[in-house]
Records
---
Amino acid sequence: MPEEHSRGARLVVGLISGTSMDGIDAALVRISGPATQPRVRLLGFETYRYSAPVRRRILRIAAGEAATAGEISQLNFLLGELFAEATLRVCRTARVPLGRLAAIGTHGQTIYHQGSPTREAGRLVTSTLQVAEPAVIAERTGAPVVADFRPADMAAGGQGAPLVPLVDYLLLRDARRGTVALNIGGIANFTVIPANARPEDVFGFDTGPGNMIIDGLVRHFSHGQKTYDAGGRWAARGRVIEPLLAQVLREPFFQRQPPKSAGREEFGQRFVEHFFLKRRGARAEDLLRTATELTPRTITDALDRFVLGSISIHRLIVSGGGAHNRLLVSRLSQLLPRLRVQLSDACGLPVDAKEAIAFAVLADRTMHGLPGNLPRVTGARRAVVLGKISRP
Amino acid sequence: MPEEHSRGARLVVGLISGTSMDGIDAALVRISGPATQPRVRLLGFETYRYSAPVRRRILRIAAGEAATAGEISQLNFLLGELFAEATLRVCRTARVPLGRLAAIGTHGQTIYHQGSPTREAGRLVTSTLQVAEPAVIAERTGAPVVADFRPADMAAGGQGAPLVPLVDYLLLRDARRGTVALNIGGIANFTVIPANARPEDVFGFDTGPGNMIIDGLVRHFSHGQKTYDAGGRWAARGRVIEPLLAQVLREPFFQRQPPKSAGREEFGQRFVEHFFLKRRGARAEDLLRTATELTPRTITDALDRFVLGSISIHRLIVSGGGAHNRLLVSRLSQLLPRLRVQLSDACGLPVDAKEAIAFAVLADRTMHGLPGNLPRVTGARRAVVLGKISRP
């Protein structure tokens, strides 16, 4: 597969279950134009929720609890079935026969990610592990599946994340306006696209927690009845605990120079317990308000520290589940008065669908033999073709 | 990649670490002729031994001890580095520059295999898990890597094993003589190729333990100083414990109709302990002799029960580490007086290299868009293209 530049429109499904681990986002998109300059139209989007027992299993394993190789292997194939069903569902709703799919791009479900090397048997090793077996998805759908996007970047010395920045560049670049594309999932990350940028001008990184701490607190204080703070209304009843916020902001991750990436390893349950739940006498709404302040504060700090001093930015385009948290978005607007803060829907990319769309675009790149990482963003030595192709 | 039929010779490396988990077998082969009718010449073969700590980690995880997702993820990338080094080494010794490799086919290291469905969250799921990250191998070698050969067959309803039978068919079929190709690795399996067979006439299955029990006993009684019984000499000093042999032969696996596959789950450490090590007052050499009798007996029983009644067979071609066990091979000859028992070296396939060669041939199939499983052998609903392709 050399770098052919197909201009014909093709239908591609993008699949991801993010760090929130709620379920599978499936986006059906029509990609037209050459793979080097794709145009994207969203034809369908659905979220396929995990059942409570499945979600518990994933959370337990991703939290670092010991499991047998068999449990992880069975989970991989089980999630393959669920990712296939999510594909079937989004195509059925959009009345698109499976036979018309040119490809499926699946991020899978991350259960481990270690972007910084640790020593293993005398070698420095980074690694990442996503599950949801692509061979199962290919067999159930009859379409070629591109999966496992992160390992190739890590093998080339990168952190394997974030990968969406190239897609942000392809879909959101502007000749005259500097743009920051911000995604607030479990983790928050942004992509900086200077006005009239070339790919090598683009950079981005994880800024820290997005909804992960908020959601963890909501689950705890609602005794598992709620999974997120709708609209940020619970947090809005509380007040920021300034000493706690200051303490968390001193965490080394926030000071570190980019590129950097984060996950449940950094800001998962252990983090929530250590900083928030062990705080004696604090009210739930105040802890929530503090967690909801942490996200826009760390995003703003990262922009101030690593971006705005040197690059002219006009707009901040927000996507991800956090875009529904009005308190969070309004705090972002207040903390960044000089930027135009808008939701990605305004650019044809609904906030909930944007990440899944990105993996459809990345799959299209791989199917055309084009690289999918930005070395400046991930720290890789070179741009590489991402993913592995499974043929039905 | 449609079914092009390249006739030009191509260099392919096959990599496997089998159920013995001693190290990585790397075969460098020259494949000529169309991918549908390959001719194979072995240019180099090496075994890259695992260090003791690495081997212990693999054994521990494959034995079903609990580990974190992180440990398995790190092991995956660590083994990717080792599989890449095995490739570099076999190419260096053969003085073949990496740039000349058309592809690498890697089986990886199995840490779990469950070919019979179990219920997971209300669904029947089979699964398999091989580690040794192909993206790492692709990056270090610059060659396309085909990996993860088993999942596609399992997604199509197969047991994911054995996969070598198609290669046996391609390389060992004969117009006039019925052939059984027997591989004695940790597990023993054979392929039945009737005279003048078509692919759908071929079948095969795992017969049970090959060297797995013998090796387990040697490790135990030598206190880890030895890993196998060289030439079968230790066992030759003992006598078969007939009641123990009879007891083991009653295990349900041996009675089951093919297709069937086995692994460390069935005949690993737990099996060795339950049947052999807990036997009071038995001498080491008698237990070893009994284990060394079990392998040819179960192979012969399987031939008698499922093959020789209906198919005319002239020769039994033996490969795998067990081919070095003279006691075992001579017992096979004695138990099968009507067959010509010979080592695969006689067919240009050195006994230690044959499985690694097979994965080079299977990778060549996948690179040409050709299926790699035999549905009658694995139980799959259809022949499917195996593996996932990682591009450097």
Note: Confidence is low (pLDDT under 50) at residues 1-5 of chain B.
---
Amino acid sequence: MSGELAVSPLAPADFPVLPAVDGVELSTHAAGIRYRGRTDLMLAVLAEGTTVAGTFTSSLCPSAPVEWCRAILSSGRARALVVNSGNANAFTGRTGDEAARLTAETMAGALGLDATEIYLASTGVIGENLPQDVLARELPVVPSNLAPSDPATWRAAADAIRTTDTFAKGAAATAAFDGVGATVVGIAKGSGMIAPDMATMLAFVFTDAAITPEALQQLTTASVRRSFNRITVDSDTSTSDTTLVFATGALDNDLISGPGDPGFAELGAALDAVTLELAHQIVRDGEGATKFVTIEVTGAEHDEAASTIALAIANSPLVKTALAASDANWGRVVMAVGKAGQRADRDRLSIWIGDEQCAAAGVVADGYSEERATAHLLGDEVQLRVDVGIGDGTATVWTCDLTHGYININAGYRS
Amino acid sequence: MSGELAVSPLAPADFPVLPAVDGVELSTHAAGIRYRGRTDLMLAVLAEGTTVAGTFTSSLCPSAPVEWCRAILSSGRARALVVNSGNANAFTGRTGDEAARLTAETMAGALGLDATEIYLASTGVIGENLPQDVLARELPVVPSNLAPSDPATWRAAADAIRTTDTFAKGAAATAAFDGVGATVVGIAKGSGMIAPDMATMLAFVFTDAAITPEALQQLTTASVRRSFNRITVDSDTSTSDTTLVFATGALDNDLISGPGDPGFAELGAALDAVTLELAHQIVRDGEGATKFVTIEVTGAEHDEAASTIALAIANSPLVKTALAASDANWGRVVMAVGKAGQRADRDRLSIWIGDEQCAAAGVVADGYSEERATAHLLGDEVQLRVDVGIGDGTATVWTCDLTHGYININAGYRS
């Protein structure tokens, strides 16, 4: 499907060269679940002892694979990840739960593992049953292609999980501590979408570091809060959003078990770098996006308030359409601050577009030049900054503009 | 400005013939505040003894006229209403407060009234100062045109408060009780918009009934909750949203002072009819709207939960673009229910498009026909119904679809 959409103008020039992560083997397969002529199954097999952490959609109507992962995550252990594209296995009731279990059990049988060590994610059409006959036939074939993770297999994995993403998404970082170097690699899909999918975001991150599940969850939760939870394309929340972080332990470092241990901070920083880069790539593939927009809020009552205000700006259709038009329409930013429901005072509000201050203390800034603000907006990397003027809370979020392309993709397009 | 936009395809055939309301005199004037060649000031002078109730934007950055009205509303008394279009007097700081005070004081001088009995509303561009010299010169002229309310003066008033509304909005109803007949007439503007305005909604309702301010506020609050607070075009909240209800008492009925009094329920019903009709007209003038959409939620935990779920559906860009495409994409409705944050259970959810049941108990409904659902969606009056299946809470909201027209208006257009 992805071939039908032009590559986003905001896409990175190339897919990155992602390094091997010891303890991770990858395979992809064209199972024909929905798509023809492309891969739609991705398998990662993880070394014995791999720990896992995860965060999932806040939707109260989550997909069957999300419920499966939630149920098995308490063990903190993982041996494999199976992802299919083309069908989200969402809103499929008990049949969907059965399909998830069948997937895990079939793959467990093929790999000689326990089903409860196998994590699942599905993305694609919702409300249609995953074809169990296809799964039963095709899943056992997938392990035959297993190969160590390397630039080529990472790229193949990133491609297999795409739906209508217009480019494959990947990122890597390293963490040096205690004389060792840990590798962190992530792949993701999102924002490009196949209707009636819901811009599902999936992100899978792998490291060779040895870390307890509890410490990994702590790093993951913090990292997701600063990355995937700080991006928005259209304010909608998928039934299937999933972030899973796997640590194979192949690095053989001293086990990281908490903030006091060497490597905790370094690994967290590397994880942050990977999740933030993946989050930015998802925004860059926002449906119809022509501008990558950074919104920084300072001076709010506290950080959560700053985040709520920043997201209110980022989700405002009026702000997003103004950005699409390179229209220095800062009145719409005032509106969004006002509707955010967080403490604000009209007479303390300051607003910048790029380096140009539009508003100061609640009125138009002295010397404000709409021409300079517009010049900044004409670029495809846009910065908005709001100072609320009442406290120390700060937050940064990333979004894209709202264009005819979004309408074309979402109103014109369902196979 | 309104002439630049084609009339909404959902507009009523004609502006209604609005009856006189005893105790209300009207005048309009072309002051040239921003627009040329059209009226932009509207004055209503109200009989001595007129009571007033109001509701205002929840924005924490409200316009100066909103703050003015809030400050004087505690008296419960009103003698005049002054509305200007073309400039919202929002985000104008102390200068804006001064302009509001100047408006009230100038009109008070011209009419021989107290400024604190004069209600104000402004709609149009924000962040620009209301030109005080123009106000000082033009406001005193407005009363010279005063005439009793009648179909022609109502129409003129409804026109003067338009910004980019593509049609003038008005509604009337009567309440019979205790051998008398009360008249309720309302005019409104909204949804059509002049950038960088924010689709400000203004509604002014007038009745000849005699009712205490407290009882009138009670009816107004309830009525707004069921009408203006149940519509959404794009989820954005104006700095200036204002509803004011004036009761002149010219009917000379026994004063209505609470729910136990004759006329309270009847007047409330007439007020509801007027506010609901005005609310629907605002949706019908939604920017780029091609479909009028009714969303009914039943079976929620309670009515507030039903309302939150219904608004989540109504505000979802993915739902709204599917509606624009007449795409029976009920998976997006599931998504919106899931993200609403209210109690829901995937396996109890049922969804209808028109009379066609798409989903039952969390899976595709037996015998669901996408053809029949699509046939319903191809019309310009669309019904969605969701039964959450867990309680007795119900709510109905109204919205429109999200089309290229919305992008054209909001991304392409600022004078």
Note: Chain A has two domains: 2-284, 292-411.
